[in-house]
Amino acid sequence: xxxxxxxxxxxxxxxxxxxxxxxxxxxxxxxxxxxxxxxxxxxxxxxxxxxxxxxxxxxxxxxxxxxxxxxxxxxxxxxxxxxxxxxxxxxxxxxxxxxxxxxxxxxxxxxxxxxxxxxxxxxxxxxxxxxxxxxxxxxxxxxxxxxxxxxxxxxxxxxxxxxxxxxxxxxxxxxxxxxxxxxxxxxxxxxxxxxxxxxxxxxxxxxxxxxxxxxxxxxxxxxxxxxxxxxxxxxxxxxxxxxxxxxxxxxxxxxxxxxxxxxxxxxxxxxxxxxxxxxxxxxxxxxxxxxxxxxxxxxxxxxxxxxxxxxxxxxxxxxxxxxxxxxxxxxxxxxxxxxxxxxxxxxxxxxxxxxxxxxxxxxxxxxxxxxxxxxxxxxxxxxxxxxxxxxxxxxxxxxxxxxxxxxxxxxxxxxxxx
Length: 418
Ligand SMILES: CC(C)=CCC/C(C)=C/CC/C(C)=C/C=C/C(C)=C/C=C/C=C(C)/C=C/C=C(C)/C=C/C=C(C)/C=C/CC(C)(C)O
Ligand SMILES: C[S@@+](CC[C@H](N)C(=O)[O-])C[C@H]1O[C@@H](n2cnc3c(N)ncnc32)[C@H](O)[C@@H]1O
Prior knowledge:
Largest sheet: 7 strands, mixed
Helix content: 40-55%
Oligomer: single chain
Organism: Methylobacterium radiodurans
Radius of gyration: 24 Å
Distance between the termini: 21 Å
Protein name: Methyltransferase
Pfam family, one: Dimerisation
Low-confidence stretches: 1-16, 197-207
Number of helices: 19
Domain O-methyltransferase dimerisation: 71-146
CATH topology of the domain at 222-417: Rossmann fold
CATH architecture of the domain at 222-417: 3-Layer(aba) Sandwich
Strand content: 5-15%
Bound molecules: the ligand CC(C)=CCC/C(C)=C/CC/C(C)=C/C=C/C(C)=C/C=C/C=C(C)/C=C/C=C(C)/C=C/C=C(C)/C=C/CC(C)(C)O, S-adenosylmethionine
Mean pLDDT: 91
Keywords: Methyltransferase, S-adenosyl-L-methionine, Transferase
Structural class: alpha/beta
Strand order of the largest sheet: 5-4-3-6-7-9-8
């Protein structure tokens, strides 16, 4: 398969703006701009801020805005408190029962007064709870984290992300140099190459394969493969309950990693044949894991790069789980076209990933994944309607979103090859 550098489809307008005809949009924007400029001038005034913080009708909003701004300033500090708790294994230690600060300090080899700084910080962030007898126990957030070991792995690998974000403006200007996340996700460089057209020609193929995707060694893919497998537990069940996998005969999980999603599907749909396509070093790890899980007889793992190799045929269902957002629009569209061509008429594609513009979780897509993927060097979080537009451009129809239980973590779009 030749890597496509097809132009990206035009971005659809935001759902909320669809009813607007242009003159109305211009009129509304003019009034909105005037209103915002008046309002912002008030809010920026220290005298107004002090007044609003005391006036009974505005007091609540003023205090909550002050807190919101403070939380934005302090977000990194809060995240590092969480990081320290995870590194010290505090949540697992306290899962066995409450403990006093001194006992914890001895166990974790910290000076008692510093242990107390961390414990009080964790209490303030609702990770821990201070008991009346002075000991500390897990609070809701600490307990929730205990049930999601994948999140703890994510938190630990954020050390790379934060190093890349140390100078966010340099990163935004593209002058940050090689990032740590680009090293952690080595396939991103090949995808970025596919985006600028450097993948696909015969001469460059060999050179690119030697330095990127298809030639990646097991040591290069093991860290991200392990992280993805561990964090699959956060999303697999939500995807499985949102779509009836049993109605299909054969599934191809494209970019299926180490087979964690296939393993989850296997128990839900016992009659389904399982296929996985990923870079050779990853597919080899998947084959081992699926064998260990007793699924060797049901699963076939194929190694290759979807930027350059044909996808295996024969499946009537394909899945892209946390894959599409890794790729810029050109390679993403080429990938969707390749899947379209590999499916039979009537075949189904499921795209499952966190999406931008998810109501109630806007910063997850646009702030977290927006900057994360920028640091990684390829891809972007897309809104559901942007994914629909790509799917349409790739030739799919009957595109519909299936509701998932926790859209913040994963949303699901189904499409059909006509
Ligand atoms: C029991 C009684 C009486 C009352 C209970 C009251 C009650 C209902 C409390 C609620 C308790 C509860 C059920 C809490 C549940 C909390 C959960 C499930 C929290 C889950 C949190 C998940 C998090 C924080 C996930 C984080 C995920 C991250 C950071 C993912 C990052 C992904 C990356 C970097 C992916 C990279 C892949 C790439 C490169 C983009 O392709
Ligand atoms: C973010 S991971 C998601 C893995 C898995 N689907 C999951 O959700 O746990 C992206 C996957 O796409 C694979 N991938 C990236 N570029 C690829 C390429 N050119 N050809 C095949 N697989 C690729 C990676 O090796 C990785 O396993």
